[in-house]
Amino acid sequence: MGESMAYHRSLAVAFVSLAVLLVGCASAAHDDKAMAATAASSAQQRASLRLQLASAYYGQGQLDVALEEVTQALSLAPNDAQAYGMRALIQAGRQQILPAEKDFLYALRLAPHNPELSNNYGLFLCQTGRAAQSLAYFDAALQDASYVSPGKALHNAGVCSASLKQYQRAGAYWLRALQIAPDVAETNAGLVRVYYEQQDYRQAAYYLARLGTVATMESQTADVLWLGIKVQHQLGDVSAEAGLAAQLRHHHSASPEYAAYQNGAFDE
pLDDT, tens digit, for every residue of 253-262? Predict the structure, then answer.
C-alpha cells in the first residue's frame, strides 16, 4: 500500500516536472519568435531608411551614392519591391538598360498591382523606344483608385501617345491631367501640340494662352515657342507671332527652331 502511494506521488511529481518543462519550452519558443519578429522589424526599418536615402540621392542626381544605399536596403530586405523599383530607376539613369529592365520586371512580379512601379516601368519603356508597349502600364497605374499621383501617369501617357502620333489619345490623357492640376505648364503645352496637329488652331491658341498664364514664355523651350509661332501664323495673328519670335530669337538664337523660323518653314 505504502509503495503504491509512493509510486503515485513520484508519478505526479514527474508529470508536474514535465508540465513545467513544456511551459518553459513554449516560453522559450515564444521568446525566440518575438526576438525574430523584432529583428525583422528592425531590419525592415533600416531598409526603409536606406531606401529613403537612395531616393533622395537619386533626386539629386548622385546616382553612385544612391546605388550604394539601395544595395544596402536590399541586403536588409531582399524581397522589397520598392527597393528593386528604385534600383531600376538608378540603373536606367546610369544607362544600364538591361539591369534596369530586370529590376523593373522583378519588382512588378513582387508587387504586380503597384501603380508607381507600373508608371515608372511605362516611362522606362517609352524612353527606350517602346512607347506602344508603355501605354498599358500607364493605364494599369490609372486603374488603381489608391494611386496618389495619377497626374504623373496621365502626363507620361500623353507624352508617349504623342510620340506615336496618337494625338487624340494624347489629348484625352492630358485633358484628364488638367482636371487634376490645371497649372502644369507641360500639360498645357502638350494640348497646344495636340490641337495644332489636329489643325484645330483656335483650340491650340486657347491652350497657348493658358500656358502663358501658368508660366512665362521666356522660360519655354525652343520647341514650344516655335509651336506657338506656327499656331499664331495659322491664325494670322502677326503681332502674337512676332512676340513669340522675339522670345525665340532672344533665348534660343542658335536652335534649329529659330533657323526654321528664319527660313519660313511653317509647314514642316
Answer: 999 999 999 9
Rounded to a whole number of angstroms, the distance between the first and last alpha carbons of the chain is 117
CA dihedral 123, 165, 231, 221 (to 10 degrees): 30
Instruction: Give the C-alpha separation, 91 to 64, whole Å.
Output: 10
Q: Which amino acid would we find at residue 172?
A: A
How far is Cα 72 from Cα 212, in angstroms, rounded to an integer?
A: 46
Locate 262 and state its grid cell. 528664319
Instruction: Please give the Cα distance from 145 to 230 (Å, whole number).
Output: 39
Nearest C-alpha neighbor of 50 from the set 83, 78, 81: 83
Q: What is the pLDDT of residues 56-108, one digit of tens each?
A: 999 999 999 999 999 999 999 899 999 999 999 999 999 999 999 999 999 99
What is the sign of the dihedral through the CA atoms of 146, 150, 152 and 154? positive
List of residues 6+ apart from 251 with CB closer than 8 A: 218, 222, 225
CA distances 5 to 9, 10, 14, 175, Å, are 6, 9, 14, 92
Amino acid in position 66: A
Helices (H), 164-237: 167-180, 185-197, 201-214, 222-235
For residue range 105-127, what is the model confidence (pLDDT) as tens digits?
A: 999 999 999 999 999 999 999 99
**Residue carrying the nine cell digits 508519478:** 11
DSSP 62: -
Count the neighbouring beta carbons within 10 Å of the beta carbon of residue 105: 13
H runs (alpha helix) in the chain: 2-59, 63-76, 81-93, 97-110, 115-127, 131-142, 150-163, 167-180, 185-197, 201-214, 222-235, 238-251, 256-262
